[in-house]
Every structure is written in C-alpha cells, then in structure tokens.
TrEMBL record:
GO terms for molecular function: heme binding; iron ion binding; monooxygenase activity; oxidoreductase activity, acting on paired donors, with incorporation or reduction of molecular oxygen. Gene3D superfamilies: Cytochrome P450 (1.10.630.10). Its cofactor is heme. The lineage of its organism: Eukaryota, Viridiplantae, Streptophyta, Embryophyta, Tracheophyta. SUPFAM superfamilies: Cytochrome P450. Belongs to the cytochrome P450 family. It comes from Nelumbo nucifera (Sacred lotus). The chain crosses the membrane at residues 16-35. Keywords: Heme, Iron, Membrane, Metal-binding, Monooxygenase, Oxidoreductase, Transmembrane, Transmembrane helix. This is Cytochrome P450 77A2-like. Heme binds at C456. CDD domains: CYP77_89. The keyword Membrane applies.
Length: 541
C-alpha cells in the first residue's frame, strides 16, 4: 500500500525543533504520561535499544543523526542486534532485521502479529476510521473487506478477465514513451510513465468506466495530494503537541473533502451504469455496494467507498512503478542482463508483442523480476504490524501498543541466506542455484509483499504488472544511460525516497529532475547523440 508504513527524516522534523523544546517546557502534564509509561515498561522485557530522553525517547537522536530513518536503522542494528527498540515519542517501535525473527512473527505467531497499530489522526481521516483492508484491526471488518478484495477481485481468474485493460495500457505506455523520447532527445521519465500506466489499469479495474485522460490525471493528482498529506508529522509521535498543528489538521480535512468530491462522482456514475445496464462488465466497486460486513448491519457508506477505492488505486501504483524504475536502472547498469533478457523475449515471441502469458513462461524474465524484488523491495519496511495481545518475539516482550517493523533490506543482505547478497544477479534464480518462497511460508528469505495473514493481497496482480511492463519495455526499446550521466545512480538516497513514497511524489515533483534514461531508436546504422556514440541494436517494433 503505498508503501512505507513508517517514515521519518530530518527534514520532517527540523522545522519543529525550537517549537518542541519550547512547547515541552510548559507541557508539564506530559510528566504524568511519562511516569505511567515508564512504570509499565519496567515490568516488560523489551528488546534492547539506545537510551532515550523522557517524553521524546529517541526522536531527536534519529533526527540529529542527520541520516534517513532507514540508514539510522541500518547502522544502529550493528550495535543492538537483530531486534531492538526505538522510542519515538509515545510510539514504541520494535525493529526486526533477521529472517528467523520475521518468520517467528509473521508465520509461527501469525495470529498474534496480524494487527495494525493505532492510526495517526490524519490516517484515521483518510481510512474513514480504519475502514480499509490495510488499516483495519485484525477482526471481523478486516476479514470481510479482505475476503471481498481477494475473492471478488484479486483472484487469478478475475485478474485474467482484465487482460485487455493491461494490453491497452501497455500499448499506450509504449506510445507515450516513444513520443516523449522523440520530443525530448531520447529522454524519458520512467517512474512517471510507468506509474501512470499502472494507475490507468487499476482505475479501470476499480470503476469499469471509460475515462478521459484529463479525468485520470485529475484523480491521480488528487491521490498524490493525499499521499503527501499522510506524511508523518511530529505530533503523530508527540500527540501532546497537536494543539500546535491545528492548521495542518484543517488542511487534512480539506484534502479529505476534496478527495470525496473527486471520487464520488465516479462512484455515482458506476451506480447509474449498473442500474441502466446490469450486464455491463465487472468492476471492483460492484463488490462493495452491497458488501455485508461481519458484525455490522449497514452497507459501506459513500465515504467508506471512497476510502476503499482509494486503497485499491494506491496499493499497487507506487510499489509497481518503484520496482520498474529499479529494474530499468539495473538493466542499464548491466547491459549483459538486458541483452540476455531481450534474447529470451525475441526467441519466445519473435516479432509479435510479448503478452502476459509469454511473460509467465519466461524463466530469465521471472528470475530478473525476483532478483529485483529481493534486492530492491519497493517498501523497505514491510507494513507496520502490531500484536492482538501481549506476545513475545525472540524471547522479548512485545506490548500491544508497539509498532513492529520488519526491515527488509537486512534480510536481502544477509550473507547467511544469500551468496554474494550485494550483487544484482538474476542467475542465482535462473540457474536454480538459489531460491526463495516469496510468501515466506516455507521460511523467510525475502518478503517484498510482506508475510503472514496481512501478506499483500495484490501479490499476483503486482507480479503480473512488473513482469509484463519489464518485458514490453525491453522488447520495444534498448535502455541506456544518457551521455550527460557518468553512471547509474543507485545510491541509497534514491532508495530511501522510493521507500517513502509520500516523499517520492513530493520530492520528485518539487526538487528532482525526472530520472532520465535514453531510448535508442536506430538499429540499421550506428547513430550519435550529442557527439557521443549511441549503441544501437534493434529498431523499436
Ligand atoms: C509490486 C507490487 C506490490 C508490492 C511490492 C506490494 C507490497 C505490499 C506490502 C509489503 C504489504 C504489507 C504486507 C504486510 O503487512 O506484511 C502490502 C499490503 C497490501 N497491499 Fe500490496 N503490494 C503490491 C501491489 C499491490 C496491489 C496491486 C494491490 C491491490 C490492487 C495491493 C494492495 C494491498 C493491500 C490492500 C494491502 C494490505 C493487506 C492487509 O492489511 O491485509 N498491493 N503490499
């Protein structure tokens, strides 16, 4: 779901530094809270962690480190081991970075670790008080919503029914890339284009309506605004400061109203389409209108429908686009892998367009995608889990109000389960020398879709999208670095931005230039661009 469950960065915090210190001086009532939590945690045997300050815990240590949160976690785990505690204001984070502990939590003790922590007030506004699959407590509402999503929409039969939608979106994506390259000296913005293609597919699956491009863009812009609004704020960790954030709360309410105003007309359109033409082809929304929720008499309200549709649209958009951007970057960095992949596609389909059935059967393609998801899980932290009742993990206590975070890169980098884990090497899977069950059921080696009872229900659809997009993009174009760049930027700063999807959207639009990759169009003869040789291998079909 759009992805990161928890994000925290210096830039998030620094503007509030003075405010917090001043605020704390006269918020004496906080002491009551401190005393009560301290006496409670004394009785618990929490995993070790850096000593924190009263009230704020480790909040400022993380901020002062000047590192992105994921980097702070990466470093600090060397001191505190595979399970440790960070106190972020009123929130207790228990961070796991070891496959056995992840297995213990998600599989062996899956029924206890299947909850979500309490939501921030902003998140509660957008989930309509935990009425989405992702946000719902582990209980009857979650069961009803998840069963409906999986059985009604994300099972393999249903996914196949929407094949024509994907084919159309792929053709449009290729056309857009080509047009952008033609008008821009061969440069294209991978993330933006792929994101839009996936968004179109999900939109069509959700509403089943013909939409004009301007409407699609309008909804997409709205969704991005929502993601930005959901960015964590300091008062999420220190609710006592919330009086200082009334402006931001007001803004959240406005964005929510805007979201409802944007989505509701399409819900109404679908309602009337179903009424006038009951034979019309199926859409996810149809399963929601009359959905019976365990333990509740009423059907979902209009605003709840808005939240559920938004969840569907957001769940697989940024995650898939992020995977693809990493994929293209890795292929540029490793031309021999790109070449091998192209050869496999060519020998499988000749000059015909590669389709998803072909993609399913291609051993090397599947190996590339698996290696991609191992090396670059689109979310660095599998979404935050919480326990339904006090539990233990690795011999430590886990209280019900703790956020349990699984730090996925640590598992991908673990030399005890992967040979040369730092290397991007699809052959590890293609040759069968190494393998992994990505659901984690048979043992945890990689968890790009999370695991246990809350495992991503879009695993099948997400995999189809990544496979098909990569296959089509490699079949149609040869990907190479623009001459203005010396090497592919695979720095973890980018990775961090990709994890924190809210930030990606914001940062990419505001600060960063598009990710520029050059497309080569000539094959019959070598070409030059800006005075440099452009390697040419084939003509786009
Ligand atoms: C490459 C694509 C995708 C990736 C990498 C991905 C990743 C994830 C991850 C890591 C989780 C957290 C699992 C956990 O809590 O342990 C998750 C949950 C979820 N994902 Fe995905 N996802 C993808 C595509 C999709 C798609 C296409 C949809 C729906 C259209 C979707 C809908 C959801 C939902 C609803 C949840 C919450 C499940 C629950 O709480 O029960 N995802 N996803």
């Amino acid at each position: 779901m759009a992805a990161a469950s928890f994000s925290f960065s210096l830039s998030t915090l620094s503007p509030y530094y003075n405010l917090i210190f001043t605020g704390l001086a006269f918020l004496v009532s906080a002491l009551i809270f401190v005393l009560s939590t301290r006496s409670k945690s004394k009785r618990l045997r929490l995993p070790p962690g850096p000593p924190g300050w009263p009230v704020v815990g480790n909040l400022f240590q993380v901020a002062r480190s000047g590192k992105p949160f994921f980097q702070y976690v990466r470093d600090i785990r060397l001191n505190y081991g595979p399970i440790f505690t960070l106190k972020m204001g009123t929130r207790t984070l228990i961070i796991i970075s070891n496959p056995d502990l992840a297995y213990e939590a998600l599989v062996e003790k899956g029924q206890f670790f299947a909850n979500r922590p309490r939501e921030t007030p902003t998140r509660a506004i957008f989930s309509d008080n935990k009425f989405t699959v992702n946000s719902a407590h582990y209980g009857p509402v979650w069961r009803s919503l998840r069963r409906n999503l999986v059985q009604g929409m994300l099972n393999s039969g249903r996914i196949k029914e929407f094949r024509h939608v994907r084919d159309l979106a792929m053709d449009r994506l290729i056309d857009r890339l080509r047009a952008e390259a033609d008008s821009n000296d061969g440069l294209v913005w991978v993330l933006k284009n792929v994101r839009f293609a996936v968004f179109c597919i999900l939109l069509s699956m959700c509403f089943g309506l013909e939409m004009e491009e301007k409407d699609i863009q309008w909804i997409d812009d709205m969704m991005k605004t929502v993601l930005i609004t959901l960015d964590p704020r300091i008062d999420d960790f220190l609710p006592i400061l919330s009086p200082f954030f009334s402006k931001q709360r007001k803004r959240s309410m406005q964005v929510r109203e805007e979201q409802i105003r944007t989505i509701l007309p399409f819900i109404e359109k679908r309602r009337s389409l179903l009424k006038n033409n009951p034979e019309t082809s199926f859409a996810y929304l149809d399963t929601l209108f009359d959905l019976e929720i365990e333990g509740r008499k009423s059907r979902p309200t209009d605003t709840e429908l808005v939240s559920l549709c938004s969840e569907f649209l957001n769940g697989g958009t940024d995650t898939t686009a992020t995977a693809l951007e990493w994929g293209i970057a890795r292929l540029i960095e490793n031309p021999e892998i790109q070449s091998k992949l192209y050869t496999e596609i060519k020998s499988k389909v000749g000059d015909r367009k590669v389709d998803e059935k072909d993609a399913e059967e291609m051993v090397y393609l599947n190996a590339v995608v698996k290696e991609l998801l191992r090396k670059h899980p689109p979310t660095y932290f599998a979404l935050t889990h919480a326990v339904t009742q006090p539990a233990t993990l690795g011999g430590y206590d886990v209280p019900t109000d703790a956020n349990v975070e699984i730090f996925l890169p640590a598992i991908a980098e673990d030399p005890s389960i992967w040979s040369e884990p730092e290397k991007f090497n699809p052959d590890r899977f293609a040759t069968g020398k190494e393998d992994a069950d990505i659901t984690g059921v048979k043992g945890v080696k990689m968890l790009p879709f999370g695991g246990g009872r809350r495992i991503c229900p879009g695993l099948g659809l997400g995999t189809v999208h990544v496979n098909l997009l990569l296959a089509r993009m490699v079949q149609e174009f040869e990907w190479s670095l623009h001459p203005s760049q010396q090497k592919v930027d695979l720095s973890e700063k980018d990775a961090e931005e990709m994890v924190y999807l809210n930030a990606v959207v914001k940062e990419l639009l505001r600060k960063h230039p598009p990710t520029y990759f050059a497309l080569t169009h000539a094959v019959t003869q070598p070409a030059t661009l800006g005075g440099y040789d452009v390697p040419c291998r084939r003509m786009p079909t």
